[in-house]
Write a structure and sequence with these properties.
The protein is mainly α and 439 residues long. It has helices spanning 2-26, 36-40, 69-75, 87-96, 102-114, 120-128, 135-145, 151-157, 165-192, 206-214, 219-231, 240-250, 255-266, 274-289, 296-308, 326-338, 343-362, 373-382, 391-413, 425-433; strands at residues 54-57, 61-64, 67-68. It has a 3-stranded antiparallel β-sheet with strand order 1-2-3. Bound molecules: coenzyme A.
Length: 439
Amino acid sequence: MEYIKNRFFQKASKCTAEYQRLKNEHSDKVIAQVTIGQVLSGMKGIPALVTDTSKLDPDEGIRFRGHSITELREKLPRLSPDGEPLPEGLFYLMLIGEIPEKDDVMNISKDWATRAHVPQHAFDVIDALPKNSKPMTQFAAGILSMATESVFQKAYRTGVHKKFYWDSTFEDVMNLIARIPHIAAYIYRRNFHNDRHIEPNPRLDWAGNLAHMMGFDSEDIRRLFRLYMVIHADHEGGNVSAHAAHLVGSALSNPYYAYTAAMTGLAGPLHGYANQDVIHWMFEMLEFLGTDEPTDEQVSKYCIQTLEEGRVIPGYGHAVLRKTDPRFTAQLEFADKYIKDDKLVNIVNQLYRIVPPILSDVGKIKNPWPNVDAYSGSLLYHYGIKEYTFYTVLFGVSRVLGVMASLINDRIYGLPIERPTSYPLKWYRDKAEGEPGNC
Ligand SMILES: CC(C)(COP(=O)(O)OP(=O)(O)OC[C@H]1O[C@@H](n2cnc3c(N)ncnc32)[C@H](O)[C@@H]1OP(=O)(O)O)[C@@H](O)C(=O)NCCC(=O)NCCS
């Protein structure tokens, strides 16, 4: 595995030099204007972060190191010709910036299998929580508890030179990625299968092994999990989970701390929790309507009612995207190919026809189109993973790939502690109106 680390070092060193050169030669260059509107609407569109792993285009959607999801599904190595690409390959691409060979991907898979041993105390910490604590609470606690294993933290304490921080961060990240599926599967089996746990199978790929430890060994589910882990892995640097990990990591907190911060952000209903909220909202609708095959008119009325109650329609809208999310489309294509006539999947497709015009009519909603969360739950549900309170954990397993690849980059570039400026509301009002405000 050393060769992958060396390859990363060689590629990233050139970017580190570029980072230093830009900082030295162009620090005074103005690149954007900031409006009060941007500040007051969640800093949207302000260029302030450096993230190489992926970039989000409002119209085209996500590109991982320049490659769209469609291209990834063609180019990344897979286990069988008609299968989905392995997430191990996407990790390589995000880290190194090149499409890997199949051998590289298989080597990463084997490396993660050798690092996959979860310390017993992580399971003990999870077991100490009541079973009715949210799966994301257990997940974050399990990840945090593994900080005892941090190679970076030990290296820092022994006084390692800052130019080598990336090296021990790399080790932590590889260990964390290797162990996170077992943490997730443990929570699933604890909560929904009476603590009947399943040991990892080191011969399986990363996503296939997660499915296995959750109790699903069919090729259908493995295929779905590989797709799921690829499409959820990264969404540039400004989303809540990626930004939280970057921010916390910028204090040189260890990667376990940084990823726990990401996961507590992902647990919010406007972010990753939306993937379970979609299913919850759909079941609420079916119960309210008293049917599992509602008419378009019934669905339409229910959507309007949701909006009138001051609630959001989960799975629709986005802070950056302005078209249908290609991650939604990838899942739709998957369903078209592999799933015939599933009631929940049919309703997702029905909502895709009905919701966008309703949201457009509201006027203020910038993106009426579906995002990734609108589809994912129905696919999991179809294949028998019906415990939807668990779905955000699966998102969290996938997101570790992109967010933590970025953290290694942060450390090799030597990005400083993040510290934007804040002002009282009055300051903005004075700026806008040129006279002293009252509050
Ligand atoms: C993703 C999301 C948080 C983006 O928020 P945003 O960047 O503030 O989006 P907008 O600028 O379009 O929001 C403008 C208004 O439309 C509302 N809006 C946006 N999406 C909406 C939706 N799906 N249903 C109802 N209202 C919505 C916002 O709440 C906001 O209302 P306000 O002015 O009363 O505060 C938002 O679209 C949302 O809450 N979607 C549902 C949850 C979801 O699917 N999250 C997963 C995202 S991947």
